[in-house]
Amino acid sequence: MDFRFTDEQLMIQDVARRIAQEKIAPSAEHHDRTGEFPRENIRLLGENGLMGIEVPAEYGGAGMDPVSYVLAMIEIAAGDAAHSTIVSVNNSLFCNGILKYGTEEQKQKYVRAIAEGREIGAFALTEPQSGSDATAMRCRAVRQDDGSYIVNGKKSWITSGPVAKYIVLFAMSEPDRGARGVTAFLIDTDLPGFSRGKTEPKLGIRASATCEIEFADFRVAPEDVLGKDGEGFKIAMGVLDAGRIGIASQAVGIARAAYEATLAYVKERKAFGAPIGTFQMTQAKIADMKCKLDAATLLTLRAGWAKAEADRTGGRFGNEAAIAKLFASEAAMWITHQAVQLHGGMGYSKEMPLERYFRDAKITEIYEGTSEIQRLVIARNETGLR
């Protein structure tokens, strides 16, 4: 691994940092308090290539590599985690699978508008009774004589669901085949048979709109099947590997913001006549926070590098992605916890962003595979046992 970043990688990092500091961070409190979807900021990110970082230029993206994606995501998440959630879904979960498995027509129709920030994409795998056990899904897609499918069922916890124009949907087309009976579809939400439930009132990442969606005799044309019939589960798991790098990056960004705020605070805040940063107990916390932050950053960069190698050689990067996601998410939760503690009462107040960092960090341990699932993935990869 060579982490001497290229000029192009540093350029997109700088663009992301500038937008995060000038536009995203100043509006973060408003969007968190109101739950308002940040359309203007997302459009600005799209105009600067950040909604399709790894998407080739011919499909409206920046044409960059996975390490560039990690660097940009960290900056955006440090500005506001909710914005980075939207960016992660568009980049990792929506565009990634279409670029790998989609036809030329699908890439032009579905990827370009998302990569340019003109529309919002979503990824629909989870159901009310089917989270980690994705093969237990009840959403059904019945093939018709003309090659189209009729879809019926519900999906839950759909990030960007309330505002998405296009959705990558996974439904059971052959229930008796288990995981091999899942097919992926590309959904235009303006078509009849699609509806959205209420927006979920969440603990954190509140500006990232989430809802349940429902299909009632929704017809999917043959040209909107993604990949081959029965390939849906394989597509979903591959996309989630990429998505975990995005969430690891998000966790690093949240943790960095909390750490930097705490570092400044302990130098200024005085107790017993001295800055609290001179107290040994405070210093021990700062040292541990810094070690966990650096370790999470390096593991996430390694995962980005591994994905770049896999893209080039056809290899795998799932283990590196799972390790990065597990460590970075738990580090973010620990670091934000310590940050709130060191800020004392001010850390508990909404006058400062520390309590938002703390609330936002929790979701990184849950979505795109819980910490428990990451441990399962890592252990199975290491032992070769199922």
Automatic annotation (TrEMBL):
<comment type="similarity">
    <text>Belongs to the acyl-CoA dehydrogenase family.</text>
</comment>
<keyword id="KW-0285">Flavoprotein</keyword>
<feature type="domain" description="Acyl-CoA dehydrogenase/oxidase N-terminal">
    <location>
        <begin position="6"/>
        <end position="117"/>
    </location>
</feature>
<dbReference type="InterPro" id="IPR009100">
    <property type="entry name" value="AcylCoA_DH/oxidase_NM_dom_sf"/>
</dbReference>
<dbReference type="InterPro" id="IPR046373">
    <property type="entry name" value="Acyl-CoA_Oxase/DH_mid-dom_sf"/>
</dbReference>
<dbReference type="InterPro" id="IPR036250">
    <property type="entry name" value="AcylCo_DH-like_C"/>
</dbReference>
<dbReference type="InterPro" id="IPR013786">
    <property type="entry name" value="AcylCoA_DH/ox_N"/>
</dbReference>
<feature type="domain" description="Acyl-CoA dehydrogenase/oxidase C-terminal">
    <location>
        <begin position="230"/>
        <end position="381"/>
    </location>
</feature>
<dbReference type="GO" id="GO:0003995">
    <property type="term" value="F:acyl-CoA dehydrogenase activity"/>
</dbReference>
<dbReference type="InterPro" id="IPR006089">
    <property type="entry name" value="Acyl-CoA_DH_CS"/>
</dbReference>
<dbReference type="InterPro" id="IPR009075">
    <property type="entry name" value="AcylCo_DH/oxidase_C"/>
</dbReference>
<protein>
    <recommendedName>
        <fullName>3-sulfinopropanoyl-CoA desulfinase</fullName>
        <ecNumber>1.3.8.11</ecNumber>
        <ecNumber>3.13.1.4</ecNumber>
    </recommendedName>
</protein>
<dbReference type="Pfam" id="PF00441">
    <property type="entry name" value="Acyl-CoA_dh_1"/>
</dbReference>
<keyword id="KW-0274">FAD</keyword>
<dbReference type="InterPro" id="IPR006091">
    <property type="entry name" value="Acyl-CoA_Oxase/DH_mid-dom"/>
</dbReference>
<dbReference type="InterPro" id="IPR037069">
    <property type="entry name" value="AcylCoA_DH/ox_N_sf"/>
</dbReference>
<dbReference type="GO" id="GO:0050660">
    <property type="term" value="F:flavin adenine dinucleotide binding"/>
</dbReference>
<dbReference type="Pfam" id="PF02770">
    <property type="entry name" value="Acyl-CoA_dh_M"/>
</dbReference>
<dbReference type="Pfam" id="PF02771">
    <property type="entry name" value="Acyl-CoA_dh_N"/>
</dbReference>
<feature type="domain" description="Acyl-CoA oxidase/dehydrogenase middle">
    <location>
        <begin position="122"/>
        <end position="217"/>
    </location>
</feature>
<keyword id="KW-0560">Oxidoreductase</keyword>
